Amino acid sequence: MFGARAQKVVLIIVGLLFAATIYPLVFLARNEPALQMMLSLYVTLGVFLLLASRSPSAHRSLIAFAAWSSIAHASVMAVQAIGDVNERVHLLIGVAMFVIIGLALIVVSPAKLAKVSAAAAS
Length: 122
Hints:
Layout: H1 4-19, H2 22-28, H3 33-52, H4 60-83, H5 88-108, H6 118-121
């Protein structure tokens, strides 16, 4: 497990990357409703990852969701890359990006908090 500083740095970087998708959401995806919906989720997730960077151990489930949803997104894009020859390079770059993001979040995810036994609490 990495230290608290590494957790915060990764959460801030990923949070900023996801929140930055507000630009294409507002200016570039006007005629693509499905892309607008997907980008709106990433903007929201980015904001919450930035908030989670303050206290990563209190937001383990959010970090896990961001990690595993990124890997799931990469998996879907990989399957799409097989069928779409014209967009293959673009899709494979996206696959690499989302796998890196997912793995980075998994690697720095905070450990479970140890349960305090009743005997130790008294």
